[in-house]
Amino acid sequence: MNGSGNDKERMYLNMGPSHPAMHGTVRILVELEGEKIVNSDVEIGYLHRGFEKMAENSTYNQVVPYTDRLNYVSPLINNVGYVMAVEKLLGIEVPERCKYIRTIMSEISRITDHLTCIAAAAAELGALTVFFYFMKAREYLWELIEATTGARLTTSYTRIGGVVRDLPENFMDGVKKAFEKVREAIYEVDRLLTRNRIFLDRTKGVGVIKAEEAIEYGFTGPCLRATGVNYDVRKAQPYLIYKEVDFDIPLGTNGDTFDRYIVRLEEMHQSMRIVEQALEKIPSGPIAVDSPDIFLPPKDKVYTNIEALMSHFKLIMEGVKVPPGEVYFAVEGANGELGFYIVSDGSGKPYRVRVRPPCFAIMQAFSRLIKGHMVADVIPVFGSINMIGGEIDR
Hints:
Elements: E1 11-15, E2 27-33, E3 36-43, H1 51-55, H2 64-68, H3 75-90, H4 96-124, H5 128-149, E4 158-159, E5 162-163, H6 171-193, H7 197-203, H8 211-217, H9 221-225, H10 233-236, H11 257-281, H12 299-304, H13 306-317, E6 325-333, E7 336-344, E8 352-356, H14 358-364, H15 366-370, H16 378-385, H17 389-392
Antiparallel strand pairs: 1-2, 2-3, 4-5, 6-7, 7-8
Helix pairs in contact: 3-4, 4-5, 4-11, 4-16, 5-6, 6-11, 11-16
């Protein structure tokens, strides 16, 4: 489109949804002066999940597999956040061992998410070796997750009132070996990227947002902490066993793409600290509440005991009967505050489920983050905020 007078020539260009870096879920209409982005319009509705309406037509436990797909790279955290919201409505508290298991699995899941984010962002900048290092490291953790939950990605491991099964034998030894490999990979990637001249040029001062503006947009998680704001749900509103373990909250200073990378890199070390402390302190005992009207009985009892069979049938067909009321509960997801607002009408299905996904608030600011930058800068900025389509188009 040609301007008149002193106006420069403007070009309008579609990035996505077929652009490889947009992962099929985002379309960005950019307005360009040469290669400089003057303005942009971000469209996010390409996944058509319908999570919230599906949840209203399912029993409370049937919603758990849907939560896996909100953030499919760290599904265990989604599971925990949802079931803890329901447990808050029920007014129940799970056994101590269950709290420890949920914390351990959530932190392992957080590491896999950060590994994936940095690996994909680096690969899209041409650092393919980083991708290979971190994907290999992620495999070690996914083997732990698979040994515990029976699945690698969509785990559906958590239940209202507990978890499906206990940690496997030799889990602690498996964690020790896996963490050694993960720490080696982080060390190698730190050497490859953190002082790399090309990586610094592509990330330093790119996609900058200041603390006050980030708060106004609703930023949480690594993207907010990269601006220097010390907010983490695990510290601000502790849940599970986070009061009982020592860990630090990594902070940035500039709020740019580089700081978002550094914060995630350090958060992986802190998550490993949490897991190691939790495994040292984990008590013995039950992994679920002893309440047949809330938690599914073991299958061996279902096959041999009529009361267990009846309990199983009612929980599957009618669902857990949650008292009428409403509740909001939030956990610290890999990308920030992940909150569930649930309204109950007293039946076995939620009357309303609303998700507060961290990515949605961050994507509000994406046009602002890329404005004034070059087209090529869209890629590192988009990679650094780690947008997950399942969270946004819900």
